[in-house]
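name: query_chain
kind: protein
chains: 1
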Amino acid sequence: MNRAHRLTRRHFLATTGAGGLLAASGLALPSYLRAGQAPSFTHGVQSGDIGPASGMVWTRTDRPTRIMFEAATTESFADPIPMASLDALPQSDFAVKRLIDDLPADQTVFYRMRAADLSDINSVSEPVTGSFRTAPTQKRDIRFVWSGDTAGQGWGIDETGMKTYATMAKHEPDFFIHSGDTIYADGPMTDTVDLPDGGVWKNVVLTDEKRKVAETLDEFRGQWKYNMLDEHVQAMNAAVPTLFQWDDHEVVNNWSDAKDLSADDRYSVKDIHLLAARAGRAFHEMTPISYTPAEPGRVYRTINYGPSLDIFFLDLRSYRDGNSEGLQESGGENTTLLGAKQIAWLKKALTESRATWKIIACDMPIGLLVWDKINDTTKHVEAIANGDDGLPKGREMEIADLLKFIKDEAIANTVWLTADVHYTAAHEYHPERAAFQDFEPFWEFVSGPLHAGSFGPNGLDMTFGPEVKYVKAPPEGQVNLPPSAGLQFFGLVDIDGSTEQMTVRLMDRDDNELWKTMLDPKKS
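structure:
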């Protein structure tokens, strides 16, 4: 497979300069020490939401600065393309992002930033550099990775760091899909965690924001900044575009508009709408997700990646009704998951897609049972499946309608990717096994966590006829295993440029190939 040139981890660490080394400590310099010193970039760079002529880029500085950008098609920055500068100000926590456009298709683009102190404009930082590859307009080999769940259940940056990111980066993917639970705003960390085998896990990097649940805007921002203190995360961010979606832990576990925090003593802010608003702002400030003027907080969107691939990012969190038992037999209260507007967008986008493969990036699985425990006797549906095994009820009705639409419109080669459940699995859905049969067979692949506790496996609901083709999870009776136990997973996808066959591999953080399958494309 012909791979594009990428920035290496060594090159990244070299180009961050002194500012990058200071950022790795996680400590901001006090103002009296910064006097006379040039600004620095505190959390590296990121890119994302690439297209055939553009890509989003992001960075953050340590003070009010004017950030100057340039791009080039060579690492030496011969004949660079200058761009308008942006100001990093306190209102955005000194974070900025921008679209770099008018780029050639299928080209590795190098971008460079320098920061000038707004209180001393002649004081200019060392440069920081990143790269991404624009999407193709012709068929070629494509490689990407996906996973979810970063820094959850109290497992933070230890001496090894977030190793799965380094393992993924070694495969030089064209992009990375982060399937949600990008942060754990509701998961405080401690300096150490006692392990069942008598050992001790040490969070060698820990910030004040990670010691409590996030409530203020700055605390939500701090969750993101913590993850980007990891050297593996920073190195991958500099070389591989990340396509972000979110789930619940960006706000609070199992959140919806109906979430009740009145009995949760960890929170002084009880208003879920206020917490979600702050979380949403931090999500969009701290990631290179593209901006939708019609709905600035929108997460669902399409990424067109050439004639072989379109990716449709869903948002199962922002528009849902409250969790319930999920057994309603008709639409109405507590049955909305995606919502009418998002479903209409998805149907239209799928119908208009001319790509061979249509990846549906979904932040929760379809047929796995994921529960929201209310008390010792009551549990509600947190995802889609309700455990009934019969015809679609509750939220399953939206999925049934969507699957029927895909069949009726003869939309071929849909594949679902997800995370959320903290183990890895391959599911094949088939109408012959299903209670609801008006759909075409399809695959759903599950991967994660990236760096969080390991759980599972979950039970199956047979409404849509899933069959487990592969699963790897903790041994029975073991839960919340630390990353050091090795049960951290990601998926690796290759699309052959000539045959358009898709190979899906399920991998672990030590880069072991656990399972793979090759899917042949069908003609529409």
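note: Helices lie at 9-24, 31-34, 163-170, 217-227, 231-239, 272-285, 340-352, 396-408.
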